[in-house]
Each structure stands twice: as C-alpha cells, then as structure tokens.
Amino acid sequence: MVDRLKLDGTLHNAPLLAQAANLSALKIKLAVSEREVENLKKENTAHIADLFSLQARINAAESMTENLKKTDAALDTRLTTSETSLEHLKRENAERPKVAFSTTLPGPVGAVGPFNVQTNLVYTKVFTNVGNAYNSATGVFTAPVKGVYYFRFTALSYLNSIAMAINFHKNHEILMHVGAFNTDGHHEYVCNGITLLLEVGDVVFTSLPKNYKLMDDANKSTTFSGFLLYPITQTVLSNFRTVVNITMETDPSLNFTMLNESSLHSPASKESCDYLSPSVSQYQRRFVPVLYAAIFLLGFLGNALVVGVLCCSPSHRTASGTYLVNLAASDLLFLGSLPFWASYYSMEYEWVFGRAMCKLCGALLSFNVYASIFFITCMSADRYQAVVHPLRSPYRARRVGHARRLCAGVWVLAAVSTLPTLAFRDVVSLQGLNVTACAMTYPDQRWHTALTLAKNTVGFLVPFVVIATCYGRIAGRLLATPRLPLRGSARPDRVLRMVVAVVTAFFLCWCPFHVLAFLGALRDLGVEWSCEVGRAVGMLLPASLCLGFSNSAINPFLYCFVGNRFREQLRGLYRQKVTHVTLETLSTRLTSFSRKLSSDVRDSATVESLPPNNDL
Q: Can you give the residue ranges of the G-protein coupled receptors family 1 profile domain (predicted)?
C-alpha cells in the first residue's frame, strides 16, 4: 500500500518535475538572452557613438569643403581681378607713346665757335631716336604728345678757352644758361637736366651763345638727350577734373586737391605741386564715417520727434509750425542718404550702390542744401513780421495758408536747383585712382565754376544776409522794449539768446564749406595759390562738410527743444498718452470687476433658488 502510494505520488509529481526542469531551462535561456541583449545594447551604444563620430567628421568635412569653396571663389575673383589689371596694364603700356633720343656732336672736329651770333647746336650723331621726335638736321626736338619730359645736356670746354657755355631753349625761350671759365689750361666739363611739361608741338633745343666756345672730341663729351616720362591724355585730365571739384554738387566724400587742365601747364605755376595724388588720409576714413553716423542718429531722432509732435499737436497749425515741419522733413530726407556716404568714405571712395542710388543720394544732398536754408529764411522773415510789425501781420489762418504756399514754392525751387546734380552726377571708373566713384561729370569746367558761385550766392550769402537782417531787427526791437509783456520763458533776454544761437549756428555750420568752395571756384577762374593752400583746402573740405551736415541735427534743438512751447506740447502729448493708457487700464479693470460681480450675483441667485434639503 505504501509502495503504491509512493508510485502514485511519483506519477503525480512527474509533470511538476518536468515543468521545473523546463522552468530551469527557460531561466537559463532567459539569462543567456539577457546577456545577449546587454551585449547588443553595448554594441548598439558603440555603433551610436561611431555614428556620432562619423557625423561629426562628415560635418567637419562639409565645413572644410565650404571653406575651400569660398577660398577658391575668392582666389578665382582675385585671379580674375589680377588678369583684368594685367590686361589693362598691358593695353595701357601698349597704347602709351614711347619717345626717347640720345645724340652728340659729330666729332672730332676740335673747337666749335666762337660765332658772332647765337648759334643752334646740331647734334648729328644719333644714338637713339625712338619716336623720331628729334630732327638731326636742325638739332630740334618736337614734342609728339602732351606729357612730362626729361632732358639732359653736357658740354666740354675747349682747351685754353676762357669762355664756355650752353643755352637750353623751350619755344625760343632760354630756360637755362650753363657755363664755365677755364683758367688753369685744362678741360672743363658742365652738365644739367630739366623736367618739362610740353604741349604737342612744343620744341626744345640747345645753342652756343655769342663769342663762346665748345669742344667736340672723340670721347663724345658734348651730348643732348631726353625721353618721355609719362603722357598726360585728355582722358586722365577729364578723370581728375571729375573728382577734384569738391562742392555739395560733387561728392561729400571725395577729398582730392583742386586741379584743372590749365593748372598743369600754366607758366604762372612756380611750384611743383603733387596735384595728381589723392589726399586720402587716415582720419578721413576712420573718423568721418563715425561723425556721419552720429549726425544721422541725432538728426534722425530729433527731426522725427519734431515731425511727430508738431503733427499730433493741434497747436502746430501756425506759420512757424508749418515751416518747422517742412524743415524737419527736408532734413530727414537728407539724413537718409548719410549712411551711404559714410560707407563711401569707409570703403575709400568706392561706390557700390549703383548708378540710381548715386544720383538719388547726390540729389537729396543738393536738395537739402537749398531747402533747409530757404525754410530757415522763411521762418526768419515770419518771426520778423510777427515781432517787429505785429500790427501788419495777417490773422492766423491767413498766415498759415501763406506759409503753406511758401513751403510748396520752396520745395519746387529746391527741386529745380537740384536738376544739375541729377544731370551731371554719375558713377565713373577712375583708372588712375583705381576706384569707381560717384562724382559730377561736367561737360565743361565752367559748369562747375558757375554752379559753385550760384550755390555760394543763392544757397548761403543772400539767405544769410536776410536771416541776419531779420534777427538783427528782432533783437533791436526787443532791446528797445525791455518791458514787453511776454509770458514765462519768452522773456527778451531768453529770446535774444535764441536769436544769437540761431544766427551763430547757421554761420558756423555753413560758412567754412562755402568759403572753401569759393576758393575752388577762384582756382577755376585762374587765381593761383600756393601748394600749401591747395593741400589745406583738400584736407579741410571733409571737416567743413561734416560741420555743414551737423546743422540738420542741430536744427531741432535750436528751433524746438530750447523753446518752452514745444516742450509743453511734448509734455502734453506724453500726459495725454499716459492718461489714455491709464484710462484704458482702469476701464479694463472695471469691466473685469463688473463681470466678476455679475457672475457672483448669478451664483448667489442660483443657490437661493435651490429647494430645501428634506434629509435634515
């Protein structure tokens, strides 16, 4: 019985034992699988790290490729530029005329002279005569092209001669006389050279003065030679004439010394001035753009604030307000072009903004020169009429209408005055300076002279006389009536200070530039000055332009911000804005509170309307 029970127990436990064995096998497989999973995870982590590393290497390679492409493009651009420059130099060298000669007396013939008249020396032995400009039959060199030439001549004295000399002629005018006295019985040797600017057809030669001797020996010691240093073509003169006319009609940035064609070969020019070299100094490239940027920021903010305040304030509808708004608008238009001129300076006079922007920026500059001074003149006349002749002044509406018509006329007149700038300003490539400039290209130098004098007269002298006269009469009237009942800050002393500030600011801002421009016009008219004066004019012009441009930034402070009326309008607008914002905020809060209160009332009504609880 016991054995049977054991057998039955064994039979019943067999499935359990099999399941236990299977479970053990599954545990072993699970452990193996887990180890495999861990290994796979480690491999996957390693693969991910490898992928990230490969991605980083790919990104680095792509970055290097992009850099190489950029470098290659830059090198290609430089190569193209170099090839273009090389072709230009080759073409220029091929087109440049070549002139050179070297000669001597035929010799040896011994003594030459003396003669009882001055005798031209004929050098018949020719070593070199490139360009065939020297005539060996007459001993005369004739300039084939306009340019700068160098000549050299030598002479040997005759043994035991006490008088040896040689003359150098240009167009039959003796420029040099060189000689020596032989007192020791030995040969004497003299030489000299000269650089000349010759026109086409000018002639040079040497001569033996009356009763003088020379020696012609086998050593060929008496010689005459010369060559062309560089030609001066009409294209070069036109290019330089384009860039040196620095007025408001020309560039406010190009700073080159004044030059015209006649100044290069005028007999009155005693000094050798380096007029062909542009005076591009470090301070101009560094500081002028900074000054332009400061003028732009201050002027733009000030004038924009003036326009905003006066247009938003109902009290701006006066003649003075009308002039101020138009003056500020004119200054804003001009100030918009200053960043372009600042970039022009910083890039060493390279204009990269295209032909249309060149004309537009130049036109805005020229327009503001006339418009701003005309508006200031109108304001001066209006204030003169209101203070000196108050009983003659028309009523307010009529004055405002008259001011608007005058402003419209000023805009039209300034636009007409700008037409020469639109016509003559253009983008020109100056090979001699290696820049593409935005400059005035006058068909004739007289245009520059006439426009400069017109600008000096119409754009400065006449308006300044009118402004000074008006404010002088205003000051006289205020001084004559010291107890004039003016309110608050409009006391006579404050008004007088305002008057002095206005006239002084206008004069100091614009007088230096117009004086320098007038000196340039005098140069065009043939008035000579020294090299130092010419260089000083070229160096001071950029500073004078900055000073003139600063008037656009000063105007808002002079005419508005120093006046109590404008400050009151500004404070009034500020209070109005703050009050408006405060009222809107209060209204919003009241609305929110009302909505919340209504909601609470509705909730209370709902609670009160519920039936009583019968469970209590």
A: 302-559
Say which residue the tokens 């327009």 belong to. 367
**Distance in angstroms (rounded) separating the CA atoms of residues 544 and 357:** 24
Average pLDDT, the chain: 75
* 369 class by beta-carbon count within 10 Å (0-12 exposed, 13-18 middle, 19+ buried): buried
Q: Are residues 174 and 279 in the same domain?
A: no
Cβ-based neighbour number of residue 479 at 10 Å: 11
Classified as helix, coil or strand, 189 is strand
Phi, psi of 178 (to 5 degrees): -125, 130
CATH code: domain of residue 530: 1.20.1070.10
| Maximum mean pLDDT: which of 80-84, 213-217, 603-607 | 80-84
Which bin fits 269, alpha (ψ -120 to 50), beta or left (φ > 0)? beta
Residue 169: which residues within 8 A CB-CB, separation 6 or more? 175, 203, 204, 205, 206, 207
Map residue 100 onto helix, strand or coil: strand
Q: Which of these, 288, 367, 385, lies nearest to 329 by C-alpha position?
A: 367
Give residues with Cβ within 8 angstroms of 215, minimum separation 6: 110, 111, 112, 156, 157, 158, 159, 161, 164, 187, 221, 222
Is residue 191 in a domain? yes
pLDDT-wise least confident of 159-168, 298-307, 331-340? 159-168
In angstroms, the first-to-last Cα distance of the chain is 75
Q: In terms of residues, how long is the chain?
A: 616
d(CA 452, CA 177): 44
- Residue 178 sits in a domain whose CATH number is 2.60.120.40
Phi-psi domain of 491 (left: phi exceeds 0; alpha: psi -120 through 50; beta: other)? beta
110 & 242 share domain: no
Where are the alpha helices (H) located in 525-563, listed in sequence order?
531-556
Give the domain extent around 519.
238-302+349-369+419-569
Answer yes or no: is 365 within a domain: yes
Q: What is the pLDDT of residue 494?
A: 61
Query: Whole-angstrom Cα distance, residue 21 to residue 566?
Result: 102
Query: What's the pLDDT score for residue 415?
Result: 92
Whether residue 186 is predicted with pLDDT greater than 80 in this model: the reply is: no
Tokens of 222: 């008496």
- CA separation, residue 251 to residues 414, 426, 529, 534, 546 (Å): 18, 11, 23, 18, 12
Q: Which two tokens stand for residue 355?
A: 């032909």
Tokens representing residue 566 in the block: 């404008």
Assess whether 157 and 261 both reside in one domain: no
DSSP string for residues in 300-366: HHHHHHHHHHHHHSGGG-SHHHHHHHHHHHHHHHHHTTHHHHHHHHHTTS---SHHHHHHHHHHHHH
Structure confidence at residue 562 (pLDDT): 56
390-401 exposure pattern, b = at least 16 Cβ within 10 A, e = fewer: eeeeeeeeebbe
